[in-house]
Write a structure and sequence with these properties.
By secondary structure, this protein is mainly α. The chain is built from six helices and no strands. 24% of the residues are buried.
Amino acid sequence: MNTLVGLVVNLCLSHHDQVRNNAVQMLYSMIISEYHIAQNFDDIENELVNKLDSLFMSDSKGDDISRTFFIGQLRHLFESSFVDEQLRARVSNFLDSVDLFLELLLNVRALPEGEEFADDRVIATVCCQILYVSILLTVTAVTSHELHPSYWP
């Protein structure tokens, strides 16, 4: 399931509207299905955060427009459908955290190279690390080897 989630998330950030819409719909369906089967979607949350981190820190994927569309479209699907209220609340909280995390990642990526921005880069990276770990700890108990290597202490 994890590999599939990563592939779908990659498509969610496509620049092709129809591909992006279909991918967000697929992710929505995957979350609903996993929730009904396991009463949680921890694995999907974990993989989604890891994949978004990887994609948004690369220069080829992830920008503010993609972030806004992805979060907004997924949020709209959950708010406008008949789903379990606990699931809706959990997804809403999760999307709030992911939205903030991606905004911080984009801010780190946008910092210019150079010694004069080294302190800003360190502070922003630490903020990303703290938020990343808090999202994953909220999702499930994780150990340090499960964290993305860029956030290892």
